[in-house]
Design a protein that fits this description.
Blueprint (H helix, E strand, L loop, with lengths): L10 H10 L6 E6 L5 E4 L12 H9 L4 E4 L5 H8 L4 E5 L2 H10 L4 E3 L12 E6 L10 H14 E12 L23 E8 L2 E2 L3 E4 L3 H10 L2 E8 L4 E8 L6
Parallel strand pairs: 3-4, 3-6, 4-5, 6-7
Antiparallel strand pairs: 1-2, 1-8, 7-12, 8-9, 8-10, 11-12
């Protein structure tokens, strides 16, 4: 589909397509309710293995079996896994991103929200959620919903590999004490919009879940939780596997 036929509400898709067509300086502007606006170069979605953060490389090494790459962007992780002979399905809610992945050679691509019931038709050994991928669930309520939904997508013995970050540092005062409303929404529930040129996307929620939140929600949903690594930006990689029921 030509870029001109894409919805104007898909600034990410337009930026990725422009980069794919040779506009190497294509860059989005990201607006949020917790920080100043910041640029997001389209090139970041096209990075090679050795341009990826260590946690992402580690996650790719931990993949096994049939992989579902959720929020796959321009397909950098899916393409790397394909090069290692994995069977990978890559999905993204952005129609432009899906088109880019098809053009780049990702063999199995679809346009889906992560909650789409259609995804339960396949059984995957690994659900991959990178680039702060836990954020795709949107909110704590979404996290609870996704953990239930993921069980319908996982093959027996399957795993979720995901990254997230603790952003409590954004709420530190000059003395390092945390300042936020304990009676308000969870501090990691962030609202974003993306802009590309004159195109403004719809507002969407994104969840930055600290490790204890992920552990509590995952254990309540019947998962075993294993933290595999953390970097200096307070981002971490977690593996979730469905807890085996023990006979009484």
């Amino acid at each position: 589909m030509p870029a001109s036929n894409l919805s104007a509400a898909d600034p990410l898709g337009h930026a990725l397509l422009d980069y794919q067509r040779g506009q190497l300086d294509a860059s989005l502007t990201v607006h949020s309710n917790v920080a100043e606006e910041e640029p997001l170069p389209a090139a970041y979605f096209f990075r090679s293995l050795w341009e990826m953060p260590e946690l992402e490389r580690q996650a790719l090494d931990e993949c096994r079996g049939r992989v579902l790459d959720l929020g796959a962007g321009a397909g950098c992780h899916a393409l790397e896994l394909q090069s290692r002979d994995f069977e990978v399905k890559a999905v993204d809610i952005s129609a432009g991103a899906v088109q880019v992945m098809q053009e780049r050679g990702v063999r199995e691509v679809a346009c889906h929200d992560i909650f789409d019931a259609a995804l339960a038709n396949g059984k995957y050994d690994t659900l991959l959620m990178l680039m702060n991928g836990v954020g795709l669930v949107g909110t704590l309520q979404g996290l609870e919903k996704f953990l239930r939904h993921a069980r319908t997508m996982l093959a027996p013995g399957g795993q979720i590999l995901a990254t997230s970050s603790d952003i409590s540092y954004l709420y530190e005062d000059e003395d390092g004490a945390l300042v936020f409303d304990l009676n308000g929404p969870y501090y990691g529930e962030v609202t974003y919009t993306m802009q590309y040129g004159e195109q403004h996307g719809a507002e969407f929620p994104w969840l930055f879940a600290d490790a204890s939140i992920v552990q509590d929600y995952a254990e309540d949903a019947g998962y075993e939780v294993e933290f595999l690594g953390e970097d200096e930006q307070q981002q971490y990689l977690v593996r979730l596997t469905v807890r085996m029921e023990r006979d009484a």
